[in-house]
Amino acid sequence: MSEPRPLHRLFELSWIDHFQGTPLSAEPEMDLSRKQQFLDLVLIRKGPGPIPRPLPDGFADLATHNLVTFKSHQEALDCWALWELIGHFVNYRKQASPSLQELLPVSDLRLFAVCARYPNNLAQEVPLTRLQEGVYEVRALTLSIRIIVVAQLPQEEHNAMLLLFSAREDLIRYAQEHYRPRSPETSSVLYQLFKAYSEDPTMSDKLKEFYRETLDQLLKELPPAERVKGLSAEELIKALPPETLEALARQLKANGASAKPEGKAQDAE
């Protein structure tokens, strides 16, 4: 596999979180070939019943198997990306079907392409049919591919999860205020997302400053165990201010001194 893509991983984790406690599961980075060609996300219906929460625009009519490709603000959604998605569709249908002679109906599968910004180059090569604000459709042979442009989605609470990936300050701010996590681990996921943005060299200085402010706020909300996860003892000590280290040293010295008389008393016994 190519080098890690943090925004893609966080995009996948946000969907996993969204479907906590529902009959749908999110399967990230599904391996569709021996050559390790990874599809960003598969949303699979595991059981009957309605989804107990509203989905982002463009995802309201999910099928049993939903294949999703994601292009961040650093990438372009072009014809090649759609060809790749169709290739994943062919491979997935073969693997998910009982046999090659008994393939799943095409109606059981749906294709989605989520992109942070409007795909201008793609729109010049194929017609994009607008379904609603920020949601388009492309027809390829007998297949329909749903295109969701995050930067054009309305600022509504059910879109907040996707708006986190818009790379626009106003939409990010709205998403931060209205996104409702479904699991306790999501704060650390959001922290990683904003950290990835703040380190992105393509971001403007204004956006980077916004992300750094958001990082500080999220850091305060993280449980202590999450804040120090992955840090060695040496790194933790280096992070402490001198006055804290001095106070710790005094406390350790005092604890050692108070323990000595007790030890001598035990020896005497």
SSE blueprint and pairings:
Blueprint: H1 6-18, E1 24-31, E2 38-45, E3 65-71, H2 79-96, E4 109-115, H3 120-125, E5 129-132, E6 135-140, E7 143-149, H4 160-163, H5 169-178, H6 186-198, H7 205-221, H8 224-227, H9 233-239, H10 242-268
Parallel strand pairs: 3-4, 4-7
Antiparallel strand pairs: 1-2, 2-3, 5-6, 6-7
Helix pairs in contact: 1-6, 6-7
What proportion strand? 15-25%
Q: Kindly give the count of domains.
A: 3
What is the 3D form? elongated
- Helical/strand content category: alpha/beta
Number of DSSP-assigned strands: 7
The unreliable regions are 263-269
Oligomer: single chain
Give the rounded overall mean pLDDT.
Answer: 80
Helix tally equals: 10
From the alpha carbons, calculate the radius of gyration and give it in angstroms. Answer: 25 Å
Question: What portion of residues is helical?
Answer: 40-55%
Reading the helices and strands in chain order gives: HEEEHEHEEEHHHHHHH
Largest sheet: 7 strands, mixed
Report, as a whole number of angstroms, the end-to-end distance: 66 Å
Widest beta sheet: strand line-up: 1-2-3-4-7-6-5
